[in-house]
TrEMBL record:
This is MoaD/ThiS family protein. Signal peptide: none annotated. Pfam families: ThiS. It comes from the Bacteria. It comes from Streptomyces paludis. SUPFAM superfamilies: MoaD/ThiS. InterPro entries: Beta-grasp_dom_sf (IPR012675), Mopterin_synth/thiamin_S_b (IPR016155), Sulfur_Carrier/Prot_Modifier (IPR052045), ThiS/MoaD-like (IPR003749).
Amino acid sequence: MSIEVRIPTILRTYTDGAKAVDGTGDTIAALFADLETRHAGIQERLIDPAKDNQLRRFVNVYLNDEDVRFLDGISTKLADGDTVTILPAVAGGALEAHTA
């Protein structure tokens, strides 16, 4: 089984700069474990052991454009040919001050 994993810029140091890598696994958790075998350190950036090995708060993961948090989280099932996209959450900014 082959799953394409799209890697955000901030995590490409773990994939030698690759924008996408292939992985295997029947769930998101198994896929991340597989990625860790070839890209040491990446799993720690995605999974929070202090939160029962769930996705880190500021990491979004999409399976074929569906947010896995609305599916089965890291237990979401995968199939051959699926695409998983990892995106860091974006927050912050400032309101622009308006003058009269």
